[in-house]
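Progress note, project year one: complex with iron/sulfur cluster.
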Amino acid sequence: MGGQPYEYRRRELVEPDWTRLPGWRGVTREQWESAQWQRAHCVKNVNQLRAVLGDLVDERFYADLVADQQHTATMSMLVPPQMLNTMVPHAAPDTDSFYADPVRRYMIPVASDRLTDWTSHPYATRDSLHEHDMWVAEGLTHRYPTKVLAELLSTCPQYCGHCTRMDLVGNSTPAVDKLRLTLKPTDRYDGMVDYLRAHPGVRDVVVSGGDVANVPWRNLESFLMRLLAIDTIRDVRLATKALMGLPQHWLQPDVVEGLERVARTAARRGVNLAIHTHVNHANSLTPLVARAAQTALSVGVRDVRNQGVLMRGVNATGEDLLELCFALQGEAGILPYYFYMCDMIPGAEHWRVAVWQAQQLQHAIMGYLPGYATPRIVCDVPFVGKRWVHMVTEYDREHGISYWTKNYRTSIERDDPEALSKRYAYYDPIDTLPESGRQWWRKQELAAVA
Ligand code: SF4
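Model obtained:
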């Protein structure tokens, strides 16, 4: 009998030894586990990266990074030591292993990673999901009938190269001048709470940003308590990649105690309080990340779930996804929930996968994990929202155009009689198309220029 396509083996989590990196030879465990130390030692530019890695990685890499930052990057650099330490985790990196590392590929993108022919899809846009267009108050996106997204702020403790909110989140880069939140935070929060009080049909609030780990705890707790005081709110989800990128934040005593007060209030009012995090590769899961997740569960958060992003070169194989899911589910107490297809933002073509590839990956991961912990791979279709990748209505594989339908109106379509009968398009990366399809797109591009 043949073997299984995937052989499960339990792997215990290990904190990679940070003293293998020249810049952190003298860093103590106490420093490492301090959120302040982690925040103060984030890598924000090539010189700071060089100070950590020294000549383990040669100048070719650093020049490649500078070229990307100057010309293409949609996000500025911000990598907490915790995340940098999970790149080439089991040895001192060298140039080749650092280039090849899956976490490096999305946290520290370089110019040579990008596709040269089609760096961006012709239909790529900033704010590709039109979240800003659907703001009903500053930072409050009302896209689905019963749910809203509350972007409390526009910063994170870490910036991911593929960030779908590249329009708003982080500092401007030479390629992207960011949208700015203009209200004072207290006025922004007031506007959100007023809207939710006035709209009892909204029952579910994703509290996000940016990353809620950058909201001073006292302000976040006060906002959450105001949400929990609205009878009609039944689900609250806190979005924080920092649970993985800066678990030290979620382990600080004042944060843990505050989270416990919020969880107790949520439980008393019968509200489902959950944390949603964003882990893309098994290497990112370390004992500190597991401790942060388990601490949140132990103080009464009902669930910690993962929403990863599917990316070529990072995790787009059945084996990578299953390794990550088993580590989440079996070692960290984090439920594998979704994998999103990487959105159609500028500069993302080398990360994006085609719909058919996502369908194959969904097929490849079925049957290994418990059913409730088998993540759905979803395509966030502009103007539609999340659709399971098998829900495509029609699919032109030659040109890489899939068509999708929906069963609700977003907040900007209330008066559109066609909204529920239209088909909405999504586009595969052009380099994944057959030659005839690629030529067709080249002709479209030439026609647009002429
Ligand atoms: S943590 Fe989330 S919001 Fe922040 S940069 Fe990464 S993907 Fe964007």
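The radius of gyration is 22 Å.
The chain has a mean pLDDT of 96.
No further modelling is planned for this target in the current period.
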